[in-house]
Amino acid sequence: MTKKISPAMTLLALAISAFAIGSTEFISVGLMPLLIQSFHISIAQAGLTVSVYALGIMIGAPLMTLLTGQINRHTLMIIIMLLFILGNLVAAFAPAFIVLLAGRVIAALAHGIFMTVASVIAADVVAPSKRASAIAVMFTGLTVATVTGVPLGTMIGQLGGWRWSFIFISAIGLIGLVADYVLVPRNLPLPSKATARGILRVLGNPQILVALLVTALGYGGTFVAYTYLSPLLEQKMGWSAGAVVIILVVYGLMVAIGNTLGGRWANAKPLAALLKMFTGLFVTLLVLTFTANNQWLGLLTVLVMGFFAFMNVPGLQLYIVQLAEKQTPNDITMASALNISAFNVGIALGSGIGGQVTSQFGLGWTPLFGAGMVALSIGLTLLLIRLARPVKRLIHKFNEY
């Protein structure tokens, strides 16, 4: 046996990589005013740094899962981190905005496959009874990135220029690369081969398709407003650039609290928990429409939005896996990858709608349109609950006989 690496050390390596990847996903939210100034672009164009990245993950997660399915997991992690570092360096030294977007796409391809592969590695290195906890540990890297990585990257950008923010993320990616090289076992089992037909089977299942739409709309609704959070805080609420960094840290803490509680609440009955979470988010975005012009009330509402924003992630991921286990048991990995795509369809759709709303109606209207997206997800969640009930009734009747 060559497997001498402690599972805890492997999970640490994955968490470091997840921290780097989590930091780069939303870094441009904090850097948006600097990018607008540097490239002389509109707010809507700057929003492309979020939506294009999301599109890269959306396409990259299933595509890279198909292309890399039979590559050794250790080797694949090294390839992923090299691709990630390359993308961020291209962004850091971009002479034009279009090159910056190209760098974002390269990094996004790495992000999409990382989320799928790292979850599987985390589950493989521990005992079956500890799999959920292991995946949670790996995901703490993403949560910590929201709390510290994004505000830290924003502060570095404000002090030394936005290019240094991407160099900073590349450096963390390099640390992740070394950690993965040393601490990820070289003899991990390969998953069952993902196929293009598997994508069709997953998307051809009505319940899974509705669940993927719930993920896209329910998660994406926040991004209509969140993508433009820095301009919203500065222009509408009157906070200084320095204050925005502190607000982003507190916002990240609210995300971390919401994420943790959301995971616990969704364990037993994910759909019922998701319905409550989406309702809370819907109400918060409606309220933000009216408080966006008030410095302190607006700030309070933004922080409550942070609490609800990513709370739905564990429940959405758990529900899609549970559904795939019942409906398409041979395609659980692909269903998981497509759900990661759906999260990013939501980000791209939300940030894209936010850009159009900002251009046509103004920054203050973004929360209202976000609430509209979340309202659609509430309707679809109710549909999923209704679809699940007849099956339970039939089973109950069958047991009576």
Automatic annotation (TrEMBL):
It is found in: Cell membrane. Keywords: Cell membrane, Membrane, Transmembrane, Transmembrane helix, Transport. CDD domains: MFS_NepI_like. It is a multi-pass membrane protein. Pfam families: MFS_1. Its main location: membrane. Residues 10-389 form the Major facilitator superfamily (MFS) profile domain. The chain crosses the membrane at residues 42-64, 76-100, 106-127, 134-156, 162-183, 208-229, 241-261, 273-290, 296-320, 332-353, 365-388. It comes from the Bacteria. This is MFS transporter.
